[in-house]
């Protein structure tokens, strides 16, 4: 596992992000060099996604090392999300590498490993043959080919082709109408997960989650290290969304496969539903896939893509994600810069605060929740510059972030694990610092860190939120408003 973040006094000057939504950039061939990673970070990336579906462990290890070196260079915690491939279903091979399925014709998927033709192909997933029923759908190659089951038994699935076309070797298969009895982790995923934990990934993305039980094995293999992000990309997961949110540390709206298995018009309202449900639980939610898709090849996005990113920001998503745009596109730095500009423009709009708080998130009946809610209302009523949160586990920061306050949140923590996880939290800027032992030390440190990191100046009012006794997890019970006076500036610059 990686060492903690070192807050160097001689670190290059990098002002805090002025926006509250976070940007997660996927690393790939176009962005894996230390030079390009540095450009993406300076352009606005707050965290990086390592896609375990592509590349090898040696390459991923170099990427993680480069990110950690950059983290030390700038003295700012950076989250790394290792995204597992998951149990992707695929057809077998064809005699000529491909075949044409005729529109309205018949096509059979069977367990015969013989290369296929225009009438049949092997489906090397025996678990599917026992569950599929007449009338259910099979979608191949991201939904480009749509089959409807006529009959199914233990050896064959006989289908009619509602939409035919060219099918080639090992194309992916989606089964939107049935819960597939396969584990969420393959053998490859287990190896990748062990690698990610060993190399200190802060978040693990679990693909093709169908049920809350899918998260249990990943959680066990993580051994208490890192946070678990459930990717919602199956209709079956939506049916048990509340339970999956409860069992996860965060949620990703993975619109790629979700958009394949659902009708296109069903995805936007479902996206809002998932964002709202995750926000209500006080956990970070990521909106992903095809956000600036045209920037894979073009230096500018379409107007529709800009609106898509803007709507996710207006909906209060914690994170917006770039996939192929930053991983394999021609304009990785420009795509991050564009996403940063869109988010800043949206958050600067007059109605942003009202829009982002359109979702009512009443506090739970706990002292910590009541104080987090108070931070929001106080910062609306008084000229507060920032909320300074002292936390060990990050739970207090999550509570404050859930309220979507109008001012930034400076999170002070002695834990590098917490500091990095907070990098995916709306409105949070994490700084690693030694733990505090007294009220006086809390106020002095809050002033010093707020000044050093650009959150305060002479006359600034700030809110401090902490727990007494200090250093005790889950004891948030103290809210204090303090002012940074002019005669204290030199003292706290030290």
Summarize this structure briefly.
This protein is an alpha/beta fold.
Q: What about the largest sheet?
A: 8 strands, parallel, barrel
- Beta-strand content estimate: 15-25%
Q: What is the 3D form? A: elongated
Percent helix, as a range, is: 25-40%
Helix run count: 17
Question: Which ranges are low-confidence, i.e. pLDDT below 50, for 5 or more consecutive residues?
Answer: none
CATH architecture of the largest domain: Alpha-Beta Barrel
CATH topology of the largest domain: TIM Barrel
Let me know the average pLDDT.
93
CATH C-level of the largest domain:
Alpha Beta
Number of strands: 22
Radius of gyration, in angstroms, nearest whole number: 24 Å
Strand order of the largest sheet: 1-2-3-13-14-15-16-17
Could you state the CATH homologous superfamily of the largest domain?
Answer: Phosphoenolpyruvate-binding domains
Structural commentary:
Helices cover 34% and strands 23% of the residues. It is α/β, with parallel strands linked by helices and 494 residues long. The protein folds into three domains: 22-86 and 183-353, Phosphoenolpyruvate-binding domains (TIM Barrel), CATH 3.20.20; 89-174, M1 Pyruvate Kinase, Domain 3 (Beta Barrel), CATH 2.40.33.10; 367-493, Pyruvate kinase, C-terminal domain (Pyruvate Kinase, Chain: A, domain 1), CATH 3.40.1380.20. A hairpin with an 8-residue loop joins strand 21 (461-467) and strand 22 (476-483).
